Amino acid sequence: GHVTAAADFSVAFCMANGKKYIPWAALYILLMGISRNYLMMHYPSDVLFAIIIGTASGILAGIVVGWGYKKYEERQSLAARRPE
Questions:
Q1: Under the phi-then-psi rule, with left for phi > 0, alpha for psi from -120 to 50, and beta for the rest, what region is 79?
Q2: Three-state DSSP class for 80?
Q3: Is 84 helix (H, G, I), strand (E, B) or coil?
Q4: What is the dihedral of CA 35, 40, 41, 43, to 10 degrees?
Q5: Using CA atoms, how far apart are residues 9 and 22, in angstroms rounded to an integer?
Q6: What is the Cα–Cα distance from 61 to 81, expressed in whole angstroms?
Q7: What are 3-23's pLDDT values in tens digits?
Q8: Residues 38-65: tens digit of each pLDDT
Q9: What is the C-alpha to C-alpha distance for residues 27 and 49, in angstroms, rounded to an integer?
Q10: Whole-model pTM?
Q11: Which of 3, 34, 54, 68 could form a disulfide with 8 if both were Cys (CB 3.0 to 4.6 A apart)?
Q12: How far apart are CA 1 and CA 18, in angstroms?
């Protein structure tokens, strides 16, 4: 859960705020994964698949939220053009 959430948050954050945060996000995910292995809470394969699942869900969340904002802006522009 920890690594999945870290990857999900980091990917979605980078999609929303730009590429300049990618190195920090990668470092955050890497440190989270290392800490889970160091504390013997998970196997390395668990951490790897958590990164994959978290990244995929972060990308999906970024796409869905971006689509939702686009639809919202379209509705707002249509409402502004509509006479009262």
A1: alpha
A2: helix
A3: coil
A4: 90
A5: 12
A6: 30
A7: 999 999 999 889 888 889 999
A8: 888 888 898 999 999 999 999 998 899 8
A9: 17
A10: 0.77
A11: 54
A12: 25
| Residue type at position 29 | I
DSSP 20-78: GGHHHHHHHHHHHHHHHHHTTSS-HHHHHHHHHHHHHHHHHHHHHHHHHHHHHHHHHHH
- What is the C-alpha to C-alpha distance for residues 58 and 12, in angstroms, rounded to an integer? 5
CB 4 within 8 A of CB 54: yes
Enter the tokens of residue 75.
């509705």
Alpha-carbon dihedral of residues 49, 45, 26, 8, nearest 10 degrees?
30
